Amino acid sequence: MQRAQSIAGQLNHGLERIAAAISLLLGLALITAVIINVANVVARYGFNNPISGADEVEVFLMVGLAFLGAVVAAIRQRHLRMDVIARRFPPMIARLVNAAESLATVAVCGLMSWVSFSYTSRIWRLGNLSDNAHIPMWIPHSLLAISFALMTVISVLRLFVAAPRVAARSEAAE
């Protein structure tokens, strides 16, 4: 049981470091988006000459913020949950419900990851560029694929760490 707790602690520590790094990256992306927005507003309304592609870059940054932010939420287990009923379950049942939730997350995020990677590779082969900024479209689309893949991995890791703890507790109860 202590070994499972030690592994869980190490996993949580490692995931929290990843979440902190992603959060720093997201903060820099948000600051960049604000700077681009301010510069574009000044150029557009002050000089009647908007920055070409600024709106596209801002949208791509916002998409990255949303999906990579979801990875941070998954790591910190701060994602939206419908756990009003599950909180009233006995601990063993609650752990089983959490495991089922993780399995569903693995299935959905795994599917979205596969679809996103497939679509991203297709766009990469076609060489599509954004209309104004001429950014290769595989870059913003890859953010979805990477985010869903990371959420899948996080859920799988949580399942494998939680499973030995559930087994150890059920054995101790017997």
Secondary-structure element order, as H and E?
HHHH
> Average pLDDT value?
87
Q: What is the overall number of helices?
A: 4
Number of strands: 0
- Low-confidence spans: 170-174
Percent helix: over 70%
Q: Largest beta sheet, briefly? A: none
Strand pairing plus helix content: what structural class? mainly alpha
Strand content: under 5%
Amino- and carboxy-terminal Cα gap:
15 Å
How large, in whole angstroms, is the Cα Rg? 21 Å
Global geometry: elongated
Q: How many domains is the backbone divided into?
A: 1
Summarize the structure in words.
- The chain is mainly α.
- The protein has one domain (2-173).
- 80% of the residues lie in helices and 0% in strands.
- The longest helix has 46 residues, at 2-47.
- It is elongated, with a radius of gyration of 21 Å.
- Residues 170-174 have low confidence and may be disordered.
Put the structure in a nutshell.
The chain has one domain. It has four helices and no strands.
